[in-house]
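User: Predict the structure for this protein chain, please.
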Amino acid sequence: MAQHTIRLLEWDTEFFGRRIARLDAGSSVPGAAELEQCCREERIELVQACVDMKDGEAISALEELDFHFVDTRIPMAGEVKDYPGNSGSDPCITVAEERDIPALRAVCHGSFAEVSRYSWRGFFPPAQVDAFYDTWLENGVRGKHDDFCFQYLRAGKVAGFATIKAHEKREVYIGIIAVAPAFRGNGVGDALVRQAFAYAAERKIPVVSSATQGRNSATQKLFSRHGMRMGEVQGWYYYEFSELSDQS
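Assistant: Here is the predicted structure, written as structure tokens:
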């Protein structure tokens, strides 16, 4: 039977400059003394846990350890064969290149901080949360995190983007998606999701999927319009080790 592990999230730790870990609960959660000892020895300030929202036993155990509910994780997926609309490629959409990053950053910056779980209780300042997603975007363009980034161009301006990771023969995953405020309500987000389905169809990949936060209702509605359905809802819970956080 699987047991819990607490593992350091190296990329998050490096980016935010604070030691962040994730609790993979498996079939159990640690005791309070074990959790505190681990955080003290590894100098971990924040522990994240993601659990099935139907697992009341696990949630109660986390809450007894002083984990706090942050947000829900909403996985969504749609079968390419059941796509409800025309999944042809859009001539306004291209694959972004290095030279496009400044314009893409202008769209990305400020699009996620209000709906991100990283904004919990001000643990990370809004400017740092914005920078986190800006970096995610740049890595997507460069193929370092996601594989590439679709950009939607209108009148020579970047109106929106979606980072994409393709798991061959399994799924096309939409990482982050955003539309510039001036272009919202004009079908840009729909075009980007449609393009993801077209990309999958051309390569005979059966599923397009993504995940978003519970508070991000706009993205949930966007995906739903394209036949993407909600999977098993999970909950993000955070534990802040006060001995170290108070020193930051």
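Residues 164 and 184 are 21 Å apart (CA to CA).
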